[in-house]
Structures are given as structure tokens and as C-alpha cells.
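Researcher: Let's do a round of design. I'm pasting the C-alpha cells now; please hold your answer until I've finished.
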């Protein structure tokens, strides 16, 4: 029985910590953790409707930021929706639940586009996802949403004031961001000690060989977190508004220092994720006067849909794309030629390239673009450079001033802080919003004080470990993966295949592949059922790139479009991806290679080296029970 705000908040923390123990990104992940998190996230919608006593067949629940909720609500008829705010229940986590009558949802193009908002795209057309996914651009603040609905449950049971005034302990900004039980460590000693605090470490999951520790090889989708980062999040929620504002200001400085972006030259604007940050720039471009110039954005075949779709939606702009070589690198000569043709020689009439928008590292091929060289070329022609650094910040050193980067976007959930924050770091004066709009943008992101504190803590820890050491560790594991895969018959790696390649130094720990004769979804499930390994399959929100590397021609693309229209639930197989993070070890890679080898052997001989303890039907049943039990332990008091 809960009687006080303190006890309620302790129960809230227990539930959220439990969710973190099995955290991964939602949808398209094959591992146990992704299935649990997806179940928790979708169950959260039902909890909101139960709280409001509404029928789920008549209403959709869209989880979004304060600003997105406001922008969406303007498109809706009064009386067709209602909004529940995390701020109104005493939690600084930046969540809005927008509850809308299904028949009142806006048609056509969503206000913000990017990851998760589509079913299928090509260079020319888009098939949008159904609601609510269509309106939840980018990775949602999953953990914050779980915390939010857990709070609603506590309110429903113990009264609406049970979580208000949750200030139960005071702390300083320095104590939250810089001091912890690991502060005496640095470098390798800190990395080794930090790994022991990985939340989810040692969680046993059902496999065909019995219970096994879960292995997360899905860090490119989202990263797990560690105890010091979790502590920063929960402590920040317990502070006064004044202390929370001090935390936000300090994290702004931490971001600037980490990214080589002095605050005298750059603004740090907190968002919910990379997708929202890039959409902000696209929205800003739509406010800029262009005169009689026809503006063009140049990106590449390598881009995540969050760095492709928003540019298509800017009124008066067109989009062109750089090609790439077999390993995934763009041709800098082609970049220079295109910029010269459009902006110097004026060979395309009134068309001028205004912005080059490029990823720092590919979420499919793992290649890191040579940003300094790209910047030197881009700025010679009076063009601005935007970098989607979602896949880069946790893995490589970045210096925006040195590289001449004008805009840089990244997400905290890719940097071991999965609490719904992110940032757009931008040269001063480049964003075009009036003062009222800019205030709304800033306040929307900054409402998530807990998420911002977690982001700051994570960046502080990365700096104390040293990015060079992190890069070295991950390159060693990536080399081990590539060497092991090269020995497996029928397995095809896309992009850089050989650790001896001259360009291997420019690759993060992201490897995509296929296995001859086995569709990716089946192989992903094999890894989960046999070894408790979580990976990701499909097109990874990079449909254009995946179709390119799989050599899907125009005819087949048209056929896929027809099939997707007729069978809207169908998803195309794509490629399978493993991605390395700080928590991974050589033993994780050994297990991956063992199961892939076993799968290839079974495919070629119909025999397996091991006799499983459980059948596939038995293990599927156990996994379902594992998911339900994990979800139950989050949403119900223990």
C-alpha cells in the first residue's frame, strides 16, 4: 500500500528501472528485449485509454513532444481530441499523450516525417504508415512514455496528487553530472567498471538451449544505459525547477565541449531526437526568402529517411542525391562537380544548392563520411553543411568548428541515455523562427529535464573514458565480426568486408548481411531463439540504400509498391544488421558467429551440431511468457 509521494515515486522508479533491464528499440527488432519494449510501448496506449475510459476501437493515442502535440492539435477539430501532459502530473519528462478520434486524424503528409512514419519509400514516392506511427516521427521517448503511463496508473489508484511535489531530495548540478561512484576511474579502468553497471547485464532469456544471458547486438537502433546515467535521470526529476534549469544550462555546455562547438558561435537546442532536430532545419528553410532562386538540397543514397523525407517536404525545394562506391563512400569529385554545375556554372537554370545534408556514419553500412574534406568543398560554393550524427556521437570524436559543420543533429538514445532527448547544434543565426516560435521550440525540448540530465551524464562519461579508446575497442570487435563472418559459406556482407581494407578505419561497428537461402526475419529469429541475441532486420529506415545494395530495380520497386498497397501489413525482408556498443565483448561476437555458422550448416546439410533442449514451438511459447511477465513487472506493483 502506497501512502506518500515518496513511496509512489519509489514505485515509479522501480517500474522504470525494470523496463530498462529489458530495453531495446521498438519494432523490427528480433531480440527478446525489443519484443518486450514494443509490448510495453503499445500497452502504454491501452493504459492511457483505460485512464480516460475510452474505447480503443474509436481512438488513437499518439505520444509526442509538447510542440508536436500543439502543432497536431491545430489540425484537429475541437472536441475530437484531448491531451494529457506529463508536466501536469508532476514529471519533467516532456511527454504528451494526444488522444484522437480515429476518423478525425489528418490525412496526407504528416507535419514531421522521418523514421517510422512510412511503410515503403523510393526516390520519388512514399507510402505513409498508418496512425499512430505516421505521427510519431523518429524513435519515440519510449522509457519516458513508460514512466508517464506508470504515473497515470499510480494516480488512478492513489489519487491525482500522489506524484505532485515529488521533490524529496536536493542535489547540485555537479553532483548529478560529474560526481558518482565511478568518478575515481578514467580510461580503460572506467570502461571496464562501467560495463558492470550495464542495466540488463546478465538478464536470462529463454532459448532452445535453456536460459541464456541476453546479448544485445542492436546498438545502432538504440543503446541501453548504465546505472550512473539512470541515476542522473531520476535525480534530476527530484529537483526544483531552478536546479533543473541549471542542469539544462550545464548540459548545453557539455554538448558544446564534446562536439567542439563553442557557445560563442553555436546554439544547442534540445529536441526529442535526431528526426525532430532535422525537421526543425527543414521547417526553418521554408521560412527563408529565396527570391527567384529554385533551392536544392543535396544528400546521398546512404541517408536514413529522417535525413531524406523532411527535405522533400520543404515548399519550393527539390532534392538530389550523391551516389556511392561499393564500400559505401560518396565520391568527393562528384560532390564538387555538382556544386560547381549548380552554383558556379549555373547549368541548371535558377536551381542552386543551398544545403548539403549528409550522415556522419551510415546506420546500414557503418561508413563514416570524411566531414572535413566534404566541408571544405561545400563551403567553397557558399553552401551550408548539415550532419546527421545519430550514429556517430557515441563512436567517433567530432569537432564541429574544426570540420566546418553548420548544423549537427543527434539523439541521446543512441548515446546510452534512452530518455527522450536529443539536440540540434547550429551556428548562431541560421535558424529562421520568430521569437514566439523559437521559445516554443526551446521550451518543448527543455521540459524533458530528466532526459537532458541523462544525456549530459552520458557525454561526461564518454569523455572520461576517451573517444579514442572507445573507437579502438569497437574496431577490434568489428574486425572480429567481419573475420568470423568471412568463414561462413553463403553469408554476404555489404560494404566494407575486410578489416585490412584501407578504409576500415572509417567504419563503425555496424555490419549488414544476408545468408543465402534464408530470409532475414527467419535468421534474426534463429539468433534470438538459439542464442538470446538481439539484432535488427529489414530496411532500417533506409529503403533507398537497401534497395540499391540488393540491386532492386525500378520494375521490382513498382511491384513492391503494388504489393504494399494491396497487403498493407506486409514488410519486405531487407538485410540483417548487427551493431556493436560499449557493453559488448569478444564472447558476444563468438556466440554470434557460432549461431550463424550453425544456421549456415543446417541450411546446407539439414543437420545441426547441437540437439536443442526445446523445440521451436516450445521456445516461442516461453518467449511469449517472458514478454508478458516482463511487462507485468513494470506496470504492476511488486
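Researcher: That's everything. Go ahead.
Model: Designed sequence:
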Amino acid at each position: 500500500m502506497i501512502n506518500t509521494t515518496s513511496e509512489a515515486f519509489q514505485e515509479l522508479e522501480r517500474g522504470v528501472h525494470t523496463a530498462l533491464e529489458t530495453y531495446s528499440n521498438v519494432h523490427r527488432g528480433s531480440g527478446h528485449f525489443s519484443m518486450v519494449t514494443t509490448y510495453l510501448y503499445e500497452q502504454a496506449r491501452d493504459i492511457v485509454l483505460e485512464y480516460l475510459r475510452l474505447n480503443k476501437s474509436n481512438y488513437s493515442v499518439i505520444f509526442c513532444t509538447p510542440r508536436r502535440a500543439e502543432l497536431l492539435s491545430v489540425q484537429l477539430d475541437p472536441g475530437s481530441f484531448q491531451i494529457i501532459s506529463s508536466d501536469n502530473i508532476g514529471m519533467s519528462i516532456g511527454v504528451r499523450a494526444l488522444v484522437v478520434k480515429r476518423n478525425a486524424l489528418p490525412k496526407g503528409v504528416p507535419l514531421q516525417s522521418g523514421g517510422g512514419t512510412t511503410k515503403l519509400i523510393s526516390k520519388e514516392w512514399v507510402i505513409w504508415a498508418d496512425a499512430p506511427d505516421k505521427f510519431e516521427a523518429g524513435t519515440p521517448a519510449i522509457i519516458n512514455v513508460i514512466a508517464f503511463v506508470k504515473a497515470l496508473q499510480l494516480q488512478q489508484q492513489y489519487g491525482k496528487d500522489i506524484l505532485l511535489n515529488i521533490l524529496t531530495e536536493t542535489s547540485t548540478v555537479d553532483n548529478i553530472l560529474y560526481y558518482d561512484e565511478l568518478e575515481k576511474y578514467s580510461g580503460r579502468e572506467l570502461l571496464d567498471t562501467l560495463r558492470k553497471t550495464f542495466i540488463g547485464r546478465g538478464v536470462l532469456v529463454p532459448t532452445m538451449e535453456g536460459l541464456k544471458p541476453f546479448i544485445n547486438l542492436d546498438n545502432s537502433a538504440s543503446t541501453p544505459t548504465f546505472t550512473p546515467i539512470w541515476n542522473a535521470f531520476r535525480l534530476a526529476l527530484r529537483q526544483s525547477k531552478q536546479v533543473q534549469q541549471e542542469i539544462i544550462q550545464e548540459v548545453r555546455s557539455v554538448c558544446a565541449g564534446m562536439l567542439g562547438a563553442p557557445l560563442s558561435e553555436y546554439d544547442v537546442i534540445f529536441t526529442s531526437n535526431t528526426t525532430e532536430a532535422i525537421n526543425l532545419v527543414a521547417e526553418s528553410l521554408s521560412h527563408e526568402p529565396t527570391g527567384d532562386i529554385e533551392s536544392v538540397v543535396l544528400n546521398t543514397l546512404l541517408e536514413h529517411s529522417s535525413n531524406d523525407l523532411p527535405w522533400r517536404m520543404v515548399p519550393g525545394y527539390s532534392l538530389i542525391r550523391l551516389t556511392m562506391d561499393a564500400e559505401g563512400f560518396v565520391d568527393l569529385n562528384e560532390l564538387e562537380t555538382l556544386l560547381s554545375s549548380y552554383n558556379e556554372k549555373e547549368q541548371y537554370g535558377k536551381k542552386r544548392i543551398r544545403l548539403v545534408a549528409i550522415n556522419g556514419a551510415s546506420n546500414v553500412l557503418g561508413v563514416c563520411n570524411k566531414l572535413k574534406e566534404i566541408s571544405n568543398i561545400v563551403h567553397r560554393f557558399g553552401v551550408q553543411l548539415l550532419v546527421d550524427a545519430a550514429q556517430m556521437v557515441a563512436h567517433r570524436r567530432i569537432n564541429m568548428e574544426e570540420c566546418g559543420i553548420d548544423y549537427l543533429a543527434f539523439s541521446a538514445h543512441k548515446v546510452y541515455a534512452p530518455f527522450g532527448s536529443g539536440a540540434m547544434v547550429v551556428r548562431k543565426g541560421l535558424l529562421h523562427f520568430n521569437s514566439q516560435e523559437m521559445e516554443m521550440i526551446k521550451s518543448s525540448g527543455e521540459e524533458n529535464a530528466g532526459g537532458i540530465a541523462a544525456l549530459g551524464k552520458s557525454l561526461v562519461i564518454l569523455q572520461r573514458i576517451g573517444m579514442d579508446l572507445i573507437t579502438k575497442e569497437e574496431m577490434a570487435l568489428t574486425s572480429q565480426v567481419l573475420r568470423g563472418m568471412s568463414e561462413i559459406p553463403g553469408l554476404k556482407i555489404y560494404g566494407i568486408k575486410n578489416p585490412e581494407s584501407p578504409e576500415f578505419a572509417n567504419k563503425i561497428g555496424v555490419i549488414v548481411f544476408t545468408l543465402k537461402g534464408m530470409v532475414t526475419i527467419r535468421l534474426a529469429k534463429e539468433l534470438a531463439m538459439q542464442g538470446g541475441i538481439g539484432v535488427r532486420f529489414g530496411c532500417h529506415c533506409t529503403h533507398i540504400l537497401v534497395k540499391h545494395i540488393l540491386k532492386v530495380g525500378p520494375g521490382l520497386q513498382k511491384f513492391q509498391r503494388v504489393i504494399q498497397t494491396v497487403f498493407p501489413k506486409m514488410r519486405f525482408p531487407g538485410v540483417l544488421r548487427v551493431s556493436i556498443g560499449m557493453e559488448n565483448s569478444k564472447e558476444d561476437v563468438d556466440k554470434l558467429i557460432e549461431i550463424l555458422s550453425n544456421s549456415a550448416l543446417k541450411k546446407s546439410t539439414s543437420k545441426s551440431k547441437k540437439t536443442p533442449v526445446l523445440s521451436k514451438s516450445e521456445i516461442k511459447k516461453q518467449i511469449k511468457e517472458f514478454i508478458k511477465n516482463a511487462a507485468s513487472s513494470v506496470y504492476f506493483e511488486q
